[in-house]
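Data card: per-record layout.
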Amino acid sequence: MTTLNRPGAPDGHVCGIDTAMEVIGGKWKVLILWALHEHPHRRFGELRRLLPGITEKVLASHLREMEADGVVRRVSYDEVPPRVEYSLTGDGEHLNDALRPLAAWGSERTAARGAGERADRSAPPVRAPSGRTASTPPDRHRG
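The structure for this 143-residue chain is written out next.
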């Protein structure tokens, strides 16, 4: 995934998060990284089965991009029938380590929502400048 240069940023990146998002941006890339971490050295079809809902086109495209970014290794074996396996590089493993706290946050959030313990429920309702609560819809017809 290529990020266009932004004004004032000589390499086109504003910060480290921007650089990381260039590598992991998109709906499936983080899930591909996680699948390869949990199931190393997988063939294309195996990866596709590990990621329900991903299309072959998107998986192939993301794997090519991730290989170009140096986080996924593609090994082609000279066999009949041909065999290709994907695995994480050292940078890919390091990236997964960086994503671990994000995964923990997501798991905690899912558990809290499942238990009905959303943090914002205990807070008083936020008042809009009009005096209405933020969840109260505005009057559509004012006379």
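Known properties of this structure: The chain has five helices and two strands. The chain has a mean pLDDT of 81.

See the next section for split statistics.
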